[in-house]
């Protein structure tokens, strides 16, 4: 988030609105301090029920949609890191993120519809993940689980949370949210094991960037 704050200040464009959503069932108590620590001046939203990912059918974070002045989506659903990151050192290092997304975003803010990174309607439509009945049921089960947990019914919460994951096993969001309730959190050994499992099956945890314009 500090990098996005820097980019937002650098752009300094009143017509550009940046909205950052923290998906965490822990709500404001968990996500609020993370936002506060970076003192952001752009809009921040705490999304306890992953409503935004449900609406756009995102399966992992960070993901984003570019929406123009007329409300049309001109890019959607990519691995949207503002910079590269690294965990560990040497051969054990895990590097993720990139340095090419932020420049593309800046180009769009500057040039609007004339930006080479604006995608055609057909391209955007093709990049929108199509909903299935199972995914819609998974979203409903996930929200039910959160409701039961909020009312102290852990057994039912776990039942519906597992149902959500079984109905939509491609949702890394569901898996990582589950990990946040464990001592190691969502960035520990279990997460890196998950990365390896996806790779072994030839599956992407997020859609790769396509910045050829």
Secondary-structure blueprint of this entry?
Blueprint: H1 2-11, E1 19-23, H2 28-38, E2 43-47, H3 51-56, E3 65-67, E4 73-76, E5 84-87, E6 94-97, H4 101-111, H5 121-127, H6 133-150, H7 154-167, H8 172-179, H9 189-200
Parallel strand pairs: 1-2
Antiparallel strand pairs: 3-4, 5-6
Helix pairs in contact: 6-7
Number of domains: 2
Class by alpha and beta content: alpha+beta
**Major sheet: arrangement of strands:** 1-2
CATH architecture of the largest domain: 3-Layer(aba) Sandwich
Gyration radius, to the nearest Å?
18 Å
pLDDT averaged over residues: 88
Q: Tell me, briefly, the overall form.
A: globular
In whole angstroms, the N-to-C terminal distance is: 26 Å
Order of helices and strands: HEHEHEEEEHHHHHH
The CATH topology assignment of the largest domain is Glutaredoxin
Number of strands: 6
Helix content: 40-55%
Low-confidence stretches: none
CATH class designation of the largest domain: Alpha Beta
User: Quick one: biggest sheet?
Assistant: 2 strands, parallel
Number of helices: 9
Q: Strand-residue fraction?
A: 5-15%
